[in-house]
């Protein structure tokens, strides 16, 4: 009863009931890594790990936010200063700022999306807050606009130049399906994966190597993509072709562009495979994606490479680093009868990874 837990925490903090409790899921991206901020396609699905936010409006211009996570402190800011939020509070308070709220709010957070593990706990928090404010304030925004508000919070308040995929997945995904999202037009369609029927499981293997997308590595990779697009004379790398990329001078922009262009092709390859009833062949595409992320985009780390090798060696059909990179988690496609073997093989590594089996879940919703 995590929604009930959020209610009790709100009562304890504010001496009254919340007006509502809203939740949103974390996500994994099956394929399409670092294509989102290059206006390409991605194929994420929401996972069965959620963040709940109990919400109540105030009669003044103060916004307060607190979490039951022991590593956080309560924060209170005037509405006019929300853009100055920092630390963990920048995610929820930045979302309030992006939505242009003109009154005070009380937010109490209960999260079950692991932090820093590549499951986008930040987007889950932003999406739950955005849906709550939209409904309670009667903003009447489409969910794509709510996703854009979460992205703006990360870009302009948190300082992480992320794309819109994480927030869109958290808000738009449906249970049992991935979401094929065009990050330029925001056109989206559900894609039934067929993994369960094929006795395939998806494991998310947390390396326990933490990353911070605001620390410069992500921004550096994105800058390389922008430089490559300018050199190629295209609006974004989704418009580039592989032959044109191969004609670029050797260097980081060429490598970044090669990853993006080949990853864009891999997204459509995976969609074709699952729609053709061949989901077991997706594993090889995941492994090809990891090689590209490791060698061309250069966002893997030795601990993650070891997990990929151990998983595939123990029977996974394929595996790759996911999320922003520089640590975080690996996604692996595994026959159901090899889950225990893959888990054991990863458990022999140091630091010992945390292995979670995930399933496609519903997007953001009102729970109470």
Automatic annotation (TrEMBL):
PROSITE patterns: GHMP_KINASES_ATP (PS00627). Keywords: ATP-binding, Carbohydrate metabolism, Galactose metabolism, Kinase, Nucleotide-binding, Transferase. Its EC number is 2.7.1.6. It comes from the Bacteria. Residues 100-172 form the GHMP kinase N-terminal domain. One of its GO terms (molecular function) is galactokinase activity. Residues 8-57 form the Galactokinase N-terminal domain. Signal peptide: none annotated. Residues 273-345 form the GHMP kinase C-terminal domain. Coiled coil: none annotated. Belongs to the GHMP kinase family. GalK subfamily. NCBIfam families: gal_kin (TIGR00131). This is Galactokinase. It comes from Actinomycetospora termitidis. The gene is galK.
